[in-house]
Structure formats: structure tokens, C-alpha cells
Amino acid sequence: MSAKHDLPxxxxxxxxxxxxxxxxxxxLQLEMEGYPCETLSDPERxxxxxxxTAPDLALVDFHLGTQGGLDLLQVIRNCEAYKxxxxxxxxxxxxEQECRQAGADGFVLKPFNWQDIARxxxxxxxxxxxx
Length: 131
Fold this sequence. Notes:
40% of the residues lie in helices and 17% in strands. The termini are far apart. It has one domain: Response regulator (Rossmann fold), CATH 3.40.50.2300. It contains five helices and five strands. β1, α1 (20-32) and β2 form a beta-alpha-beta unit.
């Protein structure tokens, strides 16, 4: 068993991707880094799942079937209870500028470099803790 697993006080993450396999892969990697992690492959349920799981940060795919990641970001930002939830958008195409302009806290380019994801999560959570 890894010493990183289930560390007390480790921030909880939510991974949103309409591909269940991608969700499982990201969840596995993040849990290996010690982050408790929930996944969601049905973006229509985003607010329900955020309410139930109370994540500290959400990683959201840019391309989500009928409802895109930017649309989902706006749903989160327009909800009074969750508007300050840190959100990192992910895509194989570099949409970083569009994502940041729409209110994303970060952007990660696919294919993933796990160190980049871990660094982005750490930096964003540290920033939010200071605010």
C-alpha cells in the first residue's frame, strides 16, 4: 500500500469526463497521488454530484458531448453555492486562453503529464486557500 493513499486532510477532487475509461484512468492516477477522487461521466448531474461529494477542486473535460466544458463551467460559476469551486479544464487542443477567459482556474493539455496535473492542482488549491 502506498504511503500517499488516504492522507488525512488531502483535498477531494471531482473528475468530469463523458468517457468513463478516461474518468477511471485519471481517478486511478490521482488516487495514487493520495487525492480522494470522485468521477462523473454524466455532466447533466454536475450540481447534484458537487452537492453530494463536496469536492475541493473539479477537473473537467473541454469536450463533453452535448454540454461542453465551458458550458459546465458557467453552470458552476452561476451557482451561488459553488461559484468559487476551483475548476481545471482539460483538452487535447490548446484552449487555455478561452478557458481562462471563461473563468477556469487552470488548463491541462492532453496527453497528460501527471506532474503538470499535480502541480496545477497544488498551485490552484494553494491560491484558493490564501483567498
